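Final report, Chapter 2: Outcomes

The project's central promise was a pipeline that accepts a single protein chain and returns its three-dimensional structure in a standardized token representation, suitable for archiving and comparison. That pipeline is now operational. To close this chapter, we reproduce one record exactly as it appears in the project archive, with the input sequence first and the structure output second.
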Amino acid sequence: MVLVYGEPIKRWSCEFAECGARCCKAGREVTIGDIKRIASGTGLAPEEFLESLENKGGLFHLKGKEDRCTFLADDLSCSLHEKGLKPIFCQMYPFKFDGIIYADDLILKVRVTKDCPNIGTGKKLTEDFEISIEALGNRFLRDIEDFKRFKSEGKDFKEILKSL
């Protein structure tokens, strides 16, 4: 289940070149599924793009350079976007990770970011946008559940990647 907190937004579009790609910061949260897609699609080992192989509740963090995402180019384009490999939370933007509630079923909490200057401007958001946010959130939760299940089976990081 995905819980969206805060005021709903009616308009938004990504204008990364205008805002200097504020959202593309070092430390972006990624799941084991994101890591598998990025490693497979780029040929990079996880150690090359993750801050550490240590996880926090099944989440990992992307490395950065000068507080920017390691995949952000000088022209502010994203090399992962161009290859269809963007992490789930990058795809969910302008929503940001706000926590997980561990109950009988996992509940993902997301909130509209306050860092994006384009909230309230741009194209009108449709029901399809809301549906895509929920679908991405549910994919995120499946990745977390898969990771936790594999960990409970005693698998280490590399074994989990091979299992996906």
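Archive annotation: The chain has a mean pLDDT of 88.
This record, like all others produced under the grant, will remain available to the consortium after the project formally closes.
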